[in-house]
Design a protein that fits this description.
The chain is of the alpha/beta class and about 350 residues long. The chain is about 30% helix and about 15% strand. The protein folds into two domains: about 130 residues, NAD(P)-binding Rossmann-like Domain (Rossmann fold); about 180 residues, Rossmann fold, CATH 3.40.50. This is Hydroxyacid dehydrogenase.
Amino acid sequence: MTTTSASEPASTAATRRPGALLVMNEASYRAALSPESLARLGESVDLLVPGPLTDVAALPDDVLARTEVLITGWGAAPITPNADRLPALRALVHTAGTVKHLVTPDMMRAGLAVSTATAVNARPVAEFATAAIIFALKRVPAARANFLQTRDKRGAGYQAGIGAHGGTVGLIGASRVARAMKPWLDLLEIRVVVSDPYLDPADAAALGWELVDLDTLLRRSDVVSLHAPSTPETAGMLGAAQFASMKDGATFINTARGALIDHDALAAEAAAGRLDAMLDVTDPEPLPADHPLWELPNVWITPHIAGSIGDEVLRLGASAVDEVERFVAGEPFERPVEVETWALIG
């Protein structure tokens, strides 16, 4: 790989378009890249292969030698094993979230500029999580289960401690998703507490959130929404002791990663009727067919749909083309991946 920076024009862009490859599966290609996005891309780069491929390994050396930009997506194989065959590679633009499976910090230190659509994908996750919080404050899963059983709506709306007025919502992790939720959370008459070892108190104050430790958050919150990255340090961070410390009647929401929690411990608390849960991610995914969480009426499990789905995926592709255009124009990425924050990538 060359060592030119992301802000340096890709060759003489006025006379030559940099060579590029689309590395993703067919489904990702069709979902993310509209005809308009493909047309824009074709004006910025020279696509060396017409259409997507999942792995660059099978391509001849002369094609890889001319590849300066990779546009990657779901289904792409790791680029690292073929890094030595990509001497001209200067940019990788990912149409999805994490790039940890694709490249390494060493490749970035050697000059590879990387961009990801993580921040763009944060929007639908934030929308989903906010909706889940409102449902949780109204205890919708438990109310629905009771209504289905009794067909009696009397009293459902008059219980103390229920509703989006005066409750406390705890956010574990001040991530992009959590911060994207702020405008909607501000509309609710609730208190927000946050626990994040990397969040500066001044930043928390600017957000209007109270910074607390994890134990305090779990004890005080009516709803706990998980937004931490999946790292060796956060694996299994919520287990039996943490769930046992949550308030009676609280709801746990996970739109982050399933590996962060002990599902058996959560199931025990939910089965006892102490906690409700709304899970968009699990570990494994899906849970085993006989896992008790499937059958609990106060637990909702959705099939990892908080992130971009359907037409929302087009937003990811369009944002990736935006980044390619910036790169070709010699401008810095708007959504770069930084080596300094690599360890915090989920």
